[in-house]
Amino acid sequence: MNRRFRLGAAMGCLALAAIGLSTGPAKAASWQKEMSRQILRDLNCEIAFMSQVKERTVDGRRVIMAKVHCKDKRSFDALRGSDNEAFQFKACEVPNAEAC
């Protein structure tokens, strides 16, 4: 292969990767913002970070599951069964356990 072709192919791959990254996180950011607002309002939890995040499509519905870690060291399992539902939170008695 000539050098110009390899450079063009590499640039094309980078462009496709950028498109994929720009669409994926935008959806994630949307539900994460909703979750952050809801858990702050409902449980006075300011999110430090999330772990064990899973997004699944079940019967055409987007299901979100995550473990939410608050800045005050509390943690919750979070579940939303579809985009039209509110998140449900279950307090973790042992904050570092896999499931609450």
Strand content: 25-35%
Report the average pLDDT across residues: 78
User: Which spans have pLDDT < 50 for at least 5 consecutive residues?
Assistant: 5-24
**Beginning-to-end CA distance, first to last residue:** 55 Å
How would a crystallographer describe the biggest sheet?
4 strands, antiparallel
Strand order of the largest sheet: 1-2-3-4
Category by helix and strand content: alpha+beta
Helical proportion, percent range: 40-55%
Radius of gyration: 19 Å
Q: What general outline do the C-alpha atoms trace?
A: globular
The overall strand count is 4
What's the number of helices? Answer: 1
What order do the SSEs take from the amino end to the carboxyl end, as H and E?
HEEEE
What does this structure look like?
- The longest helix has 41 residues, at 3-43.
- The chain is built from one helix and four strands.
- It has a four-stranded antiparallel beta sheet with strand order 1-2-3-4.
- It has 100 residues and is of the alpha+beta class.
- Strand 1 (47-58) and strand 2 (61-70) form a beta hairpin.
Topology:
Blueprint: H1 3-43, E1 47-58, E2 61-70, E3 75-80, E4 88-91
Antiparallel strand pairs: 1-2, 2-3, 3-4
